[in-house]
Amino acid sequence: MIRAASVPFAAPLDRRSGPAIGPVIGPVIGPVIGPVIGLAIGLGLAAAAGPAAAQGLPGMAAGKTPVEVNADQAIEWHQDVRAYVARGNASAKRGESTVFADVLTAYYREVPGKGNEVFQLVADGTVRVVSPTQQVFGDHGVYDVDRQIAVVTGKALKLITTKDVVTARDSLEYYEARDLTVARGDAVAVRGADRLRADVLIGQLKKMPDGSTQMERIDGSGSVVVTTATDIALSDKLVYSVADNVAVLIGNVKITRGDNQLNGEAAEMNMTTKINRVIAGPAAGRVSGLLIPGQQPGAGGQSGTGTTAGGKPAAKP
Fold it and tell me: Which of 149, 160, 190, 307 lies 20 to 30 Å from 262, alpha-carbon distance?
């Protein structure tokens, strides 16, 4: 085992990345992918042990929080391309967070009067980002230091927390400067019996006084499907308030419970009370519904009639 400290990783950023998530995704991608994939930013060598460490990595000044890097094969310094490489079952650990990959690479540039500065970090092959409360899986991870953007791609993208599972086809992304997290391409967020699906799910994070981050809002666009234990809802767009546990559906809304269905231009789904309210829009005309005798009214919600899922009058707003 070759062991060194404070060796970052990187490579050319996938330029397909861009803003574009779900009630589950927020507290995970933000706190993990950004700080962990970019865990070597601004950090240089700390004291190290082993033959590779003895070689040293010139120009990397010691940081306050060292990053411990391990690799089965080698830790290399490529002066021609200005890169440091940890190769073979490589890992980079800072605090309680660790990035694992077949190869970890850091690209740096020379800054007059300051020495070397890492500007791109990459993890390649069997990428896994682990912290005490969550894990991210993919094939390729990149962090652009200047733009503060982290992107994880691969064939089986997955993010797992103690409560949630998020999957995506194209990428899991984190925009540090904008406090945004993104799941792109057939994105699915699952928590218990509730499931959000959209072409793109975007999560807006909020910094808390204690320094942690929490998900504040989630936007979904393209072929939105919201599934609960009782209802299935379809729409063009989604806005989900995490604090209220309420999803607002916009465009070509259809909410189904059993054989009952409500249609409208917009709808509000309260995931706590299970009351759904479908609203007519100026372009779509009146709300329509198909109610089957003997089943729960509507799609378990209101259609302007004050009916709840159990058929009892709903509380007046």
Answer: 190
Residue 308 lies in a domain: no
Domain-embedded: residue 202: no
Separation of alpha carbons 84 and 78, rounded Å: 6
Counts for the chain of helices (H) and strands (E), in that order: 2, 19
Question: CB of 152 within 8 A of CB of 136?
Answer: yes
Cα–Cα distance between 13 and 32 in angstroms, integer?
18
Task: Let me know the angle formed at the C-alpha of 39 by 141 and 83, rounded to the nearest 5 degrees.
Answer: 70
Instruction: Provide the pairing of β-strand 194-207 with 68-71.
Output: unpaired
* Residue 154 falls inside a structural domain: yes
**Class of residue 78 by CB neighbours under 10 A (exposed 0-12, middle 13-18, buried 19+):** exposed
Average pLDDT over residues 230-252: 92
CATH code of the domain in which 102 resides: 2.60.450
Nearest to 201 by CA among 24, 16, 15, 37: 24
pLDDT of 101: 94
Bridge pairing between strands 83-94 and 68-71: antiparallel
Which of 109-118, 120-129, 251-260, 294-303 shows the lowest per-residue confidence on average (mean pLDDT)?
294-303
- Backbone angles phi and psi of 8, in degrees to 5: -80, -175
Q: How many domains does the chain have?
A: 1
Buried b (16+ CB within 10 A) or exposed e, 123-151: bbeebbbbbeebebbbbbbbbbbeeebbb
Residue-wise pLDDT for 89-147, tens only, equals 998 887 788 889 999 998 889 889 888 888 888 999 999 988 887 888 999 999 888 89
Q: Please determine, for residue 201, whether its predicted confidence score (pLDDT) is greater than 90.
A: yes
Percent of the chain scoring above 90 in pLDDT? 31
Query: Which tokens go with 86?
Result: 């940890």
**Which residue range is the domain that position 16 belongs to?**
2-170
The Cα–Cα gap between 246 and 264 comes to 17
Residue 33 placed within a domain: yes
In angstroms, the CA 26 to CA 44 distance is 30
